Amino acid sequence: MREWSACRACAAAAAHLATERFVEVARAFDGNDVARAREVWRTVAPMVPTLFAESNPMPLKYCLWRLGLIRSPECRLPLTQVSSGMAATLESLVAGLPER
Predict the structure, then answer these.
(1) Tens of pLDDT along 34-85?
(2) Fewer Cβ atoms within 10 A, N terminus or C terminus of the chain?
(3) What stretches of 52-83 show up as alpha helix (H) in DSSP?
(4) Cβ contact 90:82 at 8 Å
(5) How far is C-alpha 16 from the chain's CA centre?
(6) What is the pTM of this model?
(7) Among candidates 27, 20, 18, which has minimal Cα distance to 45?
């Protein structure tokens, strides 16, 4: 059960970036359209591990900043900003997000 809670938390964090797609997944499941849910999920699933490749919540915060949803990607210790390599990966992720 604990692992399932962690999975839901990861998906919820990623849903901040592609909310409508996650809503579409949920609605498809609610309507028993598992094929559609899988199809949409495959478009957003790759972002979940990316957002947790470095200390949470810094990759998500970086993306929210790049989208103009928060003022700064800064953090307080003991957290640190994302690495330059992660920033490049996140730039690609943000560029590929559906329009808000």
Answers:
(1) 999 999 999 988 898 999 999 989 999 999 999 999 999 998 999 999 999 9
(2) N
(3) 58-66
(4) yes
(5) 6
(6) 0.81
(7) 18
